[in-house]
Amino acid sequence: MTVEPQSPPRPDETRPREHLANERTLLAWARTAITFIALGFGVSRFDVFLRQLRKVDNGGGGGAGAGFSAAIGIVFVLAGLLTATAGVTRYLEARGQIEDGRYEPRAWPLVVLTCVMCAVGLALMAYLVVDVARS
Q1: What is the rounded CA–CA span in Å between residue 135 and residue 132?
Q2: How far apart are the first and last CA of the chain?
Q3: How is 2-52 classified by DSSP, letter by letter?
Q4: How far apart are CA 73 and CA 39, in angstroms?
Q5: Is residue 63 within 8 Å of 134, Cβ to Cβ?
Q6: Which of 61, 80, 93, 101 could lock onto 36 through a cystine, CB 3.0 to 4.6 A?
Q7: Taking a C-beta distance cutoff of 8 angstroms, is the pair 19, 101 a contact?
């Protein structure tokens, strides 16, 4: 018994799959953006918690680093907004390319996103190290 080779799928058959994959990618960008925004809010609220804790322990003010975590939180929120914008931009670009039959993968949004994550992570780590050293 011989098995006949299957013919490659026609472009019309793969188009729905490509669009669904593009939508899943957009949702991944959206989850990343929401995570950035939530982390930004949490980090900025952490500063309030530390200031209150220092007031109870020392009976004094918030310390030298008060407000730094709020700045890091704002950067996280901005990173979330930029991530959402980049995700939608990439989704629309890929959608047009899929329709035209000329999809081109792009690496730059992922490289920029990774660099922003590393920079904000390093700033947060520096803040935590300084805060622990002050305690």
Answers
A1: 5
A2: 77
A3: PPPPPPPPPHHHHHHHHHHHHHHHHHHHHHHHHHHHHHHHHHHHHHHHHHH
A4: 7
A5: yes
A6: 80
A7: no
Q: Name the token pair of 55.
A: 């007031």
What DSSP element (H or E) covers 4?
none
Confidence (pTM):
0.71
C-alpha span between 41 and 34 (Å, rounded): 11
- 70-120 pLDDT, tens digit per residue, is 888 888 899 899 999 999 999 999 999 999 988 888 888 889 888 988 888
Query: Per residue in 3-51, pLDDT tens?
Result: 666 666 565 778 889 999 999 999 999 999 999 999 888 888 877 777 7
Q: Which of 40, 64, 67, 48 is nearest to 135 (CA)?
A: 64
Is the CB of residue 40 less than 8 Å from the CB of residue 75? yes
